[in-house]
Amino acid sequence: MSIVFLSPTGQTGGAEAALHELLAGLRQSHPSWSLRLIVASDGPLVARVEALGVPVRVLPFPRSLARLGDWGVGRGWWRRLVFLARCAGVALPALQYLRRLRHMLQADAPDVIHTNGLKMHVLGAWARPRRSAVLWHLHDYAARRPVIARLLRRNAHHCSAVIANSRSVADDARLVCGKEVPIHAVWNAVDLERFSPSGPRIDLDAISGLPAAHDLVRVGLVATFARWKGHETFLRALATLPASLPVRAYIIGGPVYETSGSQVSMGELTHLVTSLGLDGRVGFTGFVQDSSTAMRALDVVVHASTDPEPFGLVIVEAMACGKPIVASLAGGATELTEPGVNALGFPPGDVAALARCLEDLVRDGSLRQRLGDAGRSTAERYFNRRRMAGELTPIYQSLATP
Ligand code: GLC
To answer: pTM for this one?
Structure first.
């Protein structure tokens, strides 16, 4: 079996962390399989995948293609026009890129091309050598994004199968890909050794420039700066907590992706902190390379996405660290959690409900312990590499030509 994986970025957001675990799982389960990765920008993913013994080549996207995103399309004719103009500007560099990618894939002639991001789904479909099957690994909803949905729909006939990271994303993919393409829901795995209750932890206060403090309960939102990750919901919920509550909050993460317009800026967030009267009570750590070191330093991990979360890797990572997680319950996130048992949940964007969960957890150390312990058991049972590799194996095998 030979598989080439295509990733649109070498940065490690959720989809790339999931890809890394997938590769680690396949490496362990099938040491004889040939696995290779092509990434469209350099970044930490490259060294981490190479460390698994999987060769990586960086074929950088031209800048215009890297920056092209569909965020904001559909909200007004002006934005649509700007988007179309940018698409026109990208056409030539994209064609040149396609030629180089096709060349690489032809030289490899893999059984399967596994694409791990929207741009790569399309480019992989166009660049595919005739005997290679294309497998789209969907990490996000496509149906509600008009441009993406149209691109995927038009190219679905090049794709032999789809993997979705949750049942919720699989349902969405059916709306886009139709009935012809088999769609498999396969949950992600997490690295249960890295994301574990014991291990190194960073000094959140020192990193955020806050004075050292004891006897505080530390709650943190761990997320990229994508607009829908709910930073505002989190900050507004904090602002409603009684001032006497011994709690300190952290925003852990930073902008990761290059697509313009899709992320909140640090300036917007610090401004909001000030306007809510939260100065000195919220620390910003910036991007933390190994988020397990931040999670272990927290007492409560918060997930606050305002849109349905396709999967919610952070939820499972927090569980694996044995930390209580408060999760915004919509989409794939509802499949991963059992509220009251291994997590607390609240409806997306519901500031008051999130504040209630936080207050309960800050006041009750035994609740934190119980949820954290149950979370670790859930992670070990359902989100291990072996389970993921076991579910993927028959899918690859069905795609490889004999
Ligand atoms: C994407 C999704 C997120 C998921 C991750 C890994 O980033 O938005 O929900 O956890 O991919 O599948």
So the answer is: 0.91
